[in-house]
């Protein structure tokens, strides 16, 4: 009825079918994982867009000025004076030498070129 070669061929076909099923199943799992990761990336990008919009709103100069007006007495805010940041004497010697070299150069007259970008009319 069945010869040995028939049994072997049936066994090989069953093994090949099982292997094909396993490969297909693993591929579907990987595909689902890729779709999940793409959805997660899309969500993160949307979150970044929302946070950038929030930052833009929170750092608007008009909003910050209103906050300064409201809390200036409580926080004792005042304008920054140039000498609060530093003075020329507080710079290292090499930077002072560079400043002296730059200030010793003769002034250069302003020169315009003929380049037209279209953004600014001359």
Which H/E pattern describes the elements? HHHH
How many β-strands, per DSSP? 0
Q: For the record, give the distance between the C-alpha atoms at the N and C termini, rounded to a whole number.
A: 100 Å
Content of β-strand: under 5%
Q: How does the major sheet shape up?
A: none
What characteristic shape results from the CA principal axes? Answer: elongated
Our Rg estimate from Cα atoms comes to 37 Å
Q: Count helical runs.
A: 4
Residues in helices, as a percent range: over 70%
Whole-number mean pLDDT: 82
> Would you identify the regions where 5 or more consecutive residues have pLDDT less than 50?
none
Secondary-structure class: mainly alpha
Question: What's the SSE blueprint?
Answer:
Blueprint: H1 4-58, H2 61-75, H3 82-85, H4 93-104
Characteristics of this structure?
single chain; 122 residues; mainly alpha; 0% strand
Can you describe what's shown?
Helices cover 70% and strands 0% of the residues. The protein has helices spanning 4-58, 61-75, 82-85, 93-104. The model has no long low-confidence stretch (mean pLDDT 82). It has a domain at 4-78. With 122 residues, it is an all-alpha fold.
What does this entry show, briefly?
This protein is mainly α.
């Amino acid at each position: 009825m069945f010869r040995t070669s028939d049994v072997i061929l049936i066994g090989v076909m069953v093994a090949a079918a099982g292997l094909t099923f396993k490969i297909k199943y693993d591929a579907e799992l990987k595909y689902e994982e890729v779709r999940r990761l793409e959805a997660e990336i899309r969500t993160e990008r949307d979150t970044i867009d929302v946070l950038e919009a929030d930052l833009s709103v929170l750092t608007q100069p008009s909003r910050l000025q209103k906050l300064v007006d409201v809390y200036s007495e409580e926080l004792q805010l005042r304008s920054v004076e140039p000498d609060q940041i530093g003075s020329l004497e507080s710079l290292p010697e090499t930077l002072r030498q560079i400043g002296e070299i730059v200030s010793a150069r003769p002034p250069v007259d302003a020169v315009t070129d003929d380049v037209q970008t279209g953004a600014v009319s001359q």
